[in-house]
Predict the structure.
Amino acid sequence: MPPVRADQNLVKQLNCALILDQLLASSPLSRANLAEQTGLTRSTVSSLVGELIEQGLIREVGLESVGSRGRPGILLELNPYGGSIVGIEINVGYVTVILTDFTARTLWRRHVEIPETTDRAEMLALAERLIGEAIRAGAANNLRLLGIGLGVPGLVDIGQGVLRYAPNLGWRDVNFREQWGNKFGVPLYIENDGNAAALGEHYFGVAKGHHNFVFLGTGVGLAGGLMLNGEVYRGAGGYAGEVGHMIVESGGDLCNCGRRGCWETLVGPRAVIRGIVQALERGAPSRIPELVGGDTRRITMDVVVSAANQGDQLALDTLSDIALYLGAGIANLINLFNPEMIVLGGTLIAAGDYLLRPISKIIAVEALPEPTRMVALALSALGTDACVKGAVALVIDGIVREPVFC
Ligand SMILES: [Zn+2]
């Protein structure tokens, strides 16, 4: 009877997912540990573990130390040689691609910077070429490709695999699943860059073990990712978490999304650097021009931080303003979500020394005391790779939740 078989397969897949999920969260574990933690019977665990070992997704790594329980069990962990995963980030001015093993260890990496004016076709062609190189690197290591994860800066329809709108790239309706899903012959997962970075920090970074936190990362604008109750919060249509476009100054500066006064017009690097250039044009004294050889187009947040390190007043004032506006927005996020952690990523990491303490002072005043006592401010542990690592996490998460190999 086919319906019964379908149900049995589904139950088996769900049970495999439970086992893989436990091993992803904490490894190594014995079969007895897995039975305890998943609530499955020992015989079910043994039979599924056997299949997962045969599939190469988990492996035995030795004996546990003998406790009061008597006979030591064999410890299990995810098998790094289970397969390879490609993680990719397409963003304003660059494409980053990594190839990892099944435990997300990076085996191969390329980061290509391109002019911000590069058109869409050219960027997609570059991305495809880099994915091809990554896949060949995996094949050279005899690793089967399990999936491709993609992070992009905009509103993503994750069900359809379509980037609906990326204001800072100026792209609309790019159907990545249609373009790449068939081409590379493996599942393609696509996610907003901020959400992907939040996943990366959750699985591999500073927020490991935290189930309620907000990721805030700056590149050109301000990306956000909400991890609530252990899941990326996507909202009704997958478009949640666009904190950069919260209106914080009615009638403020024009944002790339076409509206005025968005949070990223006050703290996003593109807007901040534009402010610096305007101040320089008004004759503000600063050593920033000297640091970029007189070419203001070369000003980056790293340059601003270097200038601040040398005591440059314009740079110090700029960072102090960023801290002020970040602090105010973060206070609102703390009141809304009561997170355990706020993770600052992207170019904010380099500016950490100038931001963390002032932001803490601001939230102590502007957020409600109870949730403020519970929140930690932290810098991303994954740096510029938070999004690509998160893209890899999307694939692992997808396999773990719906183990197509079971
Ligand atoms: Zn906006």
